[in-house]
């Protein structure tokens, strides 16, 4: 009987499930959009139970597709998933969610972050590689839940990420049995030792987080349970399938971009646009205070990487398509916009977009999203190019930091949804002055999850060797010198505008938001 493996990705904008055969060819796939709530300006909430429902529904669709093709679901050997590394919810003793799911897009903890950073402690950077707290860290969300969630104060048992929540419920686990893999653990930002893969009691005490709320740390390929009879009925899959501990989405996307060892760079062009470089461990120049970079451990043993991020990168693109262009149901409209934007010159006719739709960070924490310098000639395609360029300018800031530390960025791999846009890929090559590559068989994290699922049940014995033979370059983009020079000049202007000139304006706009929207600031 042919063997199959289930992989899923519980991302910000959607849940995707695939089933692959032993050759890692996709035989069934399904995806469903998630719901994002904005209860207050700067607040972003989701529902881990929706993630669970969507995953089960996608699995059921995949099972039906297999049966329709005459493929035996009884051949499924394992289930492995990934999820958002910077996001948690609180659960009760039975493992049921009792709080909203808060992730990296949320900025409600900005003041608490300032208070933690005012402590000026070295232990954060020494043990985690992250010299400062950040409002996207789950460690900060946990502090917020303990301070503000009555439900968690009364019934809270554990903090849990979205993928482990799904996997634990498929296996019927209680809160006491819940877990986190060693890569997603490092998504907490603070509170652990990145090298020993353990929670740090000293850090947790400083954060006033009780160790009892932390899930146990496991390897991504550890088997944490088996599919229950109830979950089998809901998914259409056979009961008893081994369930893996899962991994972080960023870690799996890195692997899916061929980043298996130190010295490589990748652009994870998803909802949160992330630029990553792999290293042998903590690099002091990159872990200094004020760098704005995040340090994590990877899925594979001994792998580490830094990443800089634009929190509303991909989300800004979706916002523009859905809210401004009113094309929420048309996923192909991205390509229509880019086709038109090809005719718009570098600099978007002088129009600038500031992509801080969920707030800024650091010295521009009160920043907001806005278009500047529009005229009567400004249309959808001009604005679209301005949105792309705005995200690109934030990329330039990040890559300047990497290059300043001596990191070689002569070649950058692009993965996730943004890698499908030719215009966007060429713009990144121009703006970052680097060769850019995409992959033919870049199935993203879900196919990588299937591979690790096969490794977990010992159907693959050398996982790194299998991963190395998986990817093939699809297309290469080279920087156009004239465009690169123009973007460098525009970037300096944009940087001065955002970091210096716009400060008083952001402050005034914040006051207007408070007066009109009652923002909690």
From TrEMBL:
GO molecular function: kinase activity
Keyword annotations: Kinase, Transferase
Domain annotation Carbohydrate kinase FGGY C-terminal: ranges: 268-456
Keyword ATP-binding: no
Annotated Carbohydrate kinase FGGY N-terminal domain residues: 4-256
Pfam families per record: FGGY_C, FGGY_N
Presence of keyword Nucleotide-binding: no
InterPro entries in the cross-refs: ATPase_NBD, Carb_kinase_FGGY, FGGY_C, FGGY_Carb_Kinase, FGGY_N
GO biological process: carbohydrate metabolic process
Similarity-based family: Belongs to the FGGY kinase family.
PANTHER family xrefs: SUGAR KINASE (PTHR43095), XYLULOSE KINASE (PTHR43095:SF5)
Full protein name: Xylulokinase
Organism (species): Frisingicoccus caecimuris
């Amino acid at each position: 009987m042919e063997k199959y493996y289930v992989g899923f990705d519980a991302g910000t904008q959607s849940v995707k499930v695939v089933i692959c055969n032993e050759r890692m060819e996709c035989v069934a796939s399904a995806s469903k959009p998630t719901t994002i709530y904005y209860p207050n300006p700067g607040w972003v909430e989701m529902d881990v139970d929706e993630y669970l429902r969507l995953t089960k529904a996608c699995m059921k669709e995949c099972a039906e597709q297999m049966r329709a093709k005459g493929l035996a679901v009884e051949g499924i050997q394992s289930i492995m998933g990934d999820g958002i590394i910077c996001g948690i919810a609180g659960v009760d003793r039975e493992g049921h969610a009792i709080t909203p799911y808060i992730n990296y897009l949320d900025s409600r903890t900005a003041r608490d972050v300032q208070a933690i950073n005012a402590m000026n402690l070295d232990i954060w950077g020494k043990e985690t590689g992250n010299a400062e707290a950040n409002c996207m860290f789950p460690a900060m969300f946990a502090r917020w839940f303990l301070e503000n969630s009555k439900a968690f104060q009364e019934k809270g048992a554990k903090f849990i990420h979205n993928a482990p929540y799904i996997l634990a419920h498929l296996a019927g686990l209680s809160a006491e049995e819940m877990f986190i893999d060693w890569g997603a653990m490092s998504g907490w930002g603070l509170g652990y030792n990145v090298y020993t893969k353990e929670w740090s009691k000293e850090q947790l005490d400083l954060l006033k987080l009780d160790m009892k709320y932390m899930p146990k740390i496991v390897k991504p390929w550890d088997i944490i349970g088996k599919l229950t009879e109830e979950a089998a009925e809901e998914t259409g899959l056979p009961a008893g399938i081994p369930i893996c501990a899962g991994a972080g989405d960023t870690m799996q996307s890195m692997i899916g971009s061929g980043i298996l060892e130190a010295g490589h760079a990748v652009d994870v062009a998803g909802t949160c646009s992330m630029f990553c470089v792999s290293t042998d461990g903590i690099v002091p120049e990159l872990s200094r205070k004020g760098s704005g970079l995040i340090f994590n451990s990877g899925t594979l043993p001994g792998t580490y990487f830094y990443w800089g991020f634009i929190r509303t990168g991909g989300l800004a693109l979706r916002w523009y398509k859905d809210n401004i262009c009113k094309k929420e149901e048309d996923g192909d409209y991205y390509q229509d916009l880019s086709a038109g934007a090809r005719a718009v010159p570098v600099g978007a006719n002088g129009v600038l977009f500031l992509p801080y739709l969920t707030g800024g960070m650091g010295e521009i924490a009160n920043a907001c999203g806005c278009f500047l310098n529009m005229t009567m000639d400004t249309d959808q395609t001009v604005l679209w190019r301005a949105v792309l360029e705005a995200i690109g300018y934030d990329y330039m800031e990040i890559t300047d930091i990497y290059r300043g530390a001596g990191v070689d960025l002569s070649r950058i791999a692009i993965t996730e949804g943004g890698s499908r846009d030719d215009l966007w890929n060429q713009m990144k090559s121009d703006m970052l002055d680097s060769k850019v590559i995409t992959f033919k068989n870049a199935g993203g994290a879900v196919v990588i999850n299937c591979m690790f699922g096969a490794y977990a049940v010992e159907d693959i014995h050398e996982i790194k060797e299998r991963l190395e033979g998986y990817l093939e370059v699809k297309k290469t983009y080279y920087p156009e010198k004239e465009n690169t020079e123009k973007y460098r000049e525009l970037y300096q202007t944009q940087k001065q505008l955002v970091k210096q000139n716009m400060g008083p304006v952001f402050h005034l706009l914040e006051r207007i938001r408070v007066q009109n929207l009652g923002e909690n600031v």
